[in-house]
């Protein structure tokens, strides 16, 4: 059995990946301060976890997964930084280091960190290098790579950096991850979406290139991308520009992605979505802002499945060794 600790756990994409793979596991704890995300996690996994901060936490997992807040690393955010001295949401990354140190002699075999690729930008990379250096001082060998969800079957152009740190081990070989052809976008789209998703706001209609005469390269113009073979990154809101893309209904009508479509494009099943919808019902005539946010802040489950499978296939994780360590 593999024991995991989920920090900044969101709605539990890492656990969903293990469930989908049929890997015997125990989530020894999940830590998340966002009350709505905690309720969503409880709904998906039938738990009664309470919101809690990662600060000062102490446990003994085999695998530690953390996806610290990305807003201050993101190219779409304020870019306030995420260094150990920055005191931003993204600097909570370094709380993970404190947690590992507090474990004493015991340390997780593998530490997985996911975040926006903006951490590699020139004005942000200092924090990332600091994190890698401190992991090395604790005995970890680091590997990282920017992965696109489209390479793992999901028609969403979502590029995120994944860092895998192995205790006293070899570098994780990302080139050996099992890739999958991108599935057709139509497999993820609803056939008859409700009219509330049709774009009617004049300010948004003006962002659709086909409906106005402005040139795409005109200064300050931002256009909404019409979805063809794939969508763009699912964010926490779809009723803004830019967003993940819009669906063409006819020559004059377009719509936003629905919450269910966003769930599917993040690797969650319709059954998962139904559980979250029961926890956060949609008000009549309204779009569900809570579900959009929960999905936009999650990790693509299919990418995590490939990483977990790689960890076992490459021998980085070994059930026999884990059993002996836990004995």
Brief summary of the model shown:
The protein is an alpha/beta fold. Helices cover 28% and strands 15% of the residues.
What percentage of residues falls in helices of 4 or more residues?
25-40%
Decide which structural class fits the backbone. Answer: alpha/beta
CATH topology descriptor of the largest domain: Rossmann fold
The N- and C-terminal alpha carbons lie at a distance of 11 Å
Q: How many domain modules?
A: 2
- Any idea what the CATH superfamily of the largest domain is called? Vaccinia Virus protein VP39
Q: Helix and strand string, N-terminal first?
A: EHEHEHEHEEEHEEEHHHHH
Question: What proportion of the residues form beta strands (DSSP E)?
Answer: 15-25%
CATH architecture descriptor name of the largest domain: 3-Layer(aba) Sandwich
Shape: globular
Radius of gyration: 20 Å
Say how many strands there are.
10
């Amino acid at each position: 059995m593999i024991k995991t600790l989920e920090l900044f756990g969101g709605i539990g994409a890492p656990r969903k990946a293990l469930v989908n793979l049929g890997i015997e596991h125990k989530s020894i704890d999940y830590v998340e301060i966002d009350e709505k995300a905690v309720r969503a996690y409880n709904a998906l996994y039938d738990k009664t976890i309470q919101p809690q901060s990662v600060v000062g936490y102490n446990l003994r997992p085999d695998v530690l997964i953390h996806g610290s807040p990305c807003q201050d690393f993101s190219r779409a955010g304020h870019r306030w930084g995420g260094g150990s001295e920055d005191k931003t949401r993204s600097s909570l990354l370094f709380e993970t280091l404190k947690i590992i140190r507090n474990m004493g002699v015991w340390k997780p075999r593998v530490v997985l960190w996911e975040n926006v690729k903006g951490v590699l930008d020139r004005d942000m990379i200092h924090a990332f290098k600091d994190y890698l250096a401190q992991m090395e001082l604790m005995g970890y060998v680091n590997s990282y790579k920017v992965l696109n969800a489209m390479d793992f079957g999901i028609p969403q152009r979502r590029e995120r950096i994944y860092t895998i740190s192995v205790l006293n081990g070899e570098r994780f070989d990302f080139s050996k991850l099992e890739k999958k052809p991108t599935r057709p976008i139509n497999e993820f789209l609803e056939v008859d979406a409700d009219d509330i998703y049709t774009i009617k706001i004049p300010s948004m209609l003006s962002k659709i290139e086909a409906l106005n005469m402005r040139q795409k390269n005109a200064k300050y113009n931002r256009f909404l991308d019409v979805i063809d073979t794939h969508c763009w990154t699912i964010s926490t809101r779809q009723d803004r520009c830019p967003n993940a893309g819009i669906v063409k209904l006819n020559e004059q009508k377009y719509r936003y992605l629905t919450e269910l479509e966003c769930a599917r494009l993040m690797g969650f099943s319709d059954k998962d979505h139904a559980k979250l919808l029961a926890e956060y019902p949609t008000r009549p005539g309204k779009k569900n802002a809570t579900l959009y946010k929960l999905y936009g802040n999650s990790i693509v489950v299919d990418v995590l499945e490939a990483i977990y499978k790689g960890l076992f296939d490459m021998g980085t994780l070994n059930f026999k060794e884990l059993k002996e360590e836990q004995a």
